[in-house]
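User: Last request for today: this protein with thiamine diphosphate, please.
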Amino acid sequence: MKDMGRMLLERDPFEELVIGNTAIVRGMVESGVRVVTSYPGSPTPEIAEAIRSMPAAERPMYFEFSTNEKVATEVAFGAALNGRLSVVFFKSVGLNVAADSLVQLPLQDIPGGMVVILGDDPGANSSQNEQDNRHYARLSYCPLFEPASASEAYLMFRKAAALAQELRTVIMVRLTTHVCHAKEKVRFDAWTPAPADSGPLFDPDSTNYIPLAATVFPMKRRALERLSAIEARLPSLGLDALFDNGNPDRGIIVAGLPFASVMDALDESAPGARLPDVLKLGSVYPIDRNAVRAFLKSHATVKIIEELDPVIEADVKALAYDAGLRCRIIGKQDVDEAMGEYTPGKVGAILAETWPDLVAPVGKPAAAQDAASGLPARPPQMCPGCGHRSAFYAIKKALAPTDITVADIGCHTLGSLEPYLMGRVLLSMGHSTSTASGLSLYNESRRVVCFLGDSTFFHAGLPGIINAVYNGHRVLLVIMQNGTTAMTGHQDHPGTGRNFSAETEKISIRAALEGLGVSNIREVDAYQQATLTSMVRAALDEPGFKVIIASHPCMLKFTREARRRPGWAARMVRIDQDRCERIHECVERFACPTFQRADDGSITTHPDLCIGDGSCRQTCPASAIVPEGTAGASTEATRSAP
Ligand SMILES: Cc1ncc(C[n+]2csc(CCOP(=O)(O)OP(=O)(O)O)c2C)c(N)n1
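Assistant: Here's the final one, the structure of the complex with thiamine diphosphate:
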């Protein structure tokens, strides 16, 4: 397989099998993007990995993980103001964090041009909701293009970048999970590296950059006029495509990934069935109203297939009403059509309901289609050795059943599941201290404990903490410090001592808290369970806002790195069957997946799962969890254990 970094810097045209996230990075290289920023979040982190794969000295762009999406947006905007073609990318809900600045961008004149890459997540595969960010395009007057595949991600990115540069504006490219991750053979063009950048281009005297009262209106007018200009150019941009099957009765309007599912479903259509014509929209905002109007005029019935909300549907129906068209437009028929990914199975079921003679009815409700794969449901769980598990186990011991715990976003959200049930409410990254503060009001009897990861501390945790200090909220915050942004793939953050490119000064969470005036701070290794339990007990009896920093390195990262060192071997644990009293603390309350309970109630450890961290040993009331020898010796012994 080709070296990815070398491939991305190839000068000649080439073809390669890549995921959408990689394809779009080649698009950035060819387009001459100079600055890329992000905050990590699925389904987009592989964009950063592809950028990292290019040798630093030859990488044609600057990249940073910023502290959050709003900051990332502002850094990219600043660079674009200065004439550098810039990109910011983040996940779906990242747009909520970025929004306060992002909605302003279309009002601005941006000499370098800017592209916002959204990683939306229909199906909520790795997000706390499946919000449809196409709404933000309309809200902010920002054009939005939507590719259906890796090739289209590459091509549409290039078109978006060129247009943003030419019109000195911002354009969104909306990817969804499978467009990011599905592989396709993509034909890439040649790349000629651009000459060194000329000087700064920001000229604040040339136009107004300050939206303030009446000055907002000319800026808004320019944004709206720009949208019309883009709509007028859509036919020549070639973002949309018409698949003409010569069927005046039936048509489908579709955009993004569901297009691929429509094509799959039509492949399965009844023998001899007359296929509908398909209008695939690449520009979702603005839509090419002339093209849509012509399509509606030439079909008796049009079904709109779009994932999540009826965004295109609303536009198309309004357009048909205004034009007095008689075409029957079939939008979403029920709640299920507004939920989940539009997989081929789901789209097949929707089409079967729309036109039973075209696609055979499958006999299952659309939503249940692809979930029914026959595999047992597997709840997510913390990794073996995770410090968060040790912390939750210890903290739970200190709490009364009436105490309230508030979750935050990160690997530690999994503490909200059985058997820990630590964290019973969740909104968004960094919400925990403020939600906990609200829960503490008019609440003398139920103590409130909240959790926060270290990356999230810097991302959005600080304002809630400052608020708790400022307003004296009676809350215990436990910061779950594992030295990385674990859940999204171990990206660095301001507390790790590294940025994307270099070593940096670590920002100490403790020092930051002290600087904010938090006087009640304790620190503990999350594996020291007894100490952590007594710290929580003590802290909960104290007034005001208090913080415990429970630290342990992310053991997935630690073990991956350790395994690469020569001679490293895990010292796993095993169950001393003579001592085991089958109390089952290890499976029922500590719940490391390493422990396996047989039908007869005996416990063994799983040699493929145990990493030898030993954090479990202190949990066994019978002291039956004992260390093995080396990995090789223990594997056999454990496997042969009764
Ligand atoms: C606004 C927003 N941006 C990004 C994400 C994706 N995301 C989920 S968890 C997480 C990292 C949390 O890291 P940390 O707080 O250190 O907790 P850990 O996973 O390391 O335990 C991120 C970035 C998100 N859910 N919301």
